[in-house]
Design goal:
5 helices, alpha+beta, 180 residues, Pnp Oxidase, Chain A
Length: 180
């Protein structure tokens, strides 16, 4: 059953990096704010050390994780095994979205393949790692990664992407500042 660790074990690091999807969870401080859960995919997750991970954050219709981490830093990442041995891993910690042009972005970006839709790199300083059984998670097969977001971003100029982010990613659903 479930176990708790104060750092990411090597076997968990390689397993997480091999997963085709993971989920982020964040929330504002306000009790009536929106709790956000987002699926993430692509070649976007890296373990940077025993207590530090990062993921390449792609342009989307909202920017809740960026806004929430700017406000309070609380962030959880969750990985599920959809094939093979059942497993769930959650990483709890303090997150920060590092935007292009900000300190550290260029160094972090070297860990990921270039992507025209990238809008930030979210770094999580991990304070706790928890595993659980995942016995009730269904087994599913990956058909193929989706190229839709990459193709959409490739059709945009840098200026068009900036304009989209200014319109759609400036604030969260709760009005918290995100990008801009």
């Amino acid at each position: 059953m479930g176990r708790s660790f104060d750092a990411i074990a090597d076997h968990l690091a390689s397993w997480m990096e091999a997963q085709p999807i993971f989920f982020t969870a964040s929330a504002p401080l306000a009790a009536d704010g929106h709790v956000n859960v987002s699926p993430k995919g692509g070649d976007s997750f890296r373990v940077l050390g025993p207590n530090r991970v990062a993921y390449l954050d792609y342009t989307g219709s909202g920017a809740e994780t960026i806004a929430h981490t700017r406000e309070n830093g609380r962030l959880t990442l969750m990985f599920c095994a959809f094939d093979g041995k059942p497993n769930i891993v959650r990483l709890f910690g303090t997150g920060e979205a590092v935007l292009p042009g900000h300190d550290g972005f260029d160094d972090l970006a070297t860990a990921f393949p270039p992507n025209p839709g990238a809008r930030s790199i979210v770094v999580l300083d991990v304070v706790e790692v928890r595993t659980s059984c995942g016995y009730s998670v269904p087994e599913m097969a990956l058909v193929a990664p989706r190229a839709t977001l990459d193709e959409w971003a490739e059709r945009k100029t840098a200026e068009e992407l900036d304009a989209y982010r200014a319109e759609k990613n400036a604030v969260s659903l709760d009005g918290l500042p995100a990008i801009g």
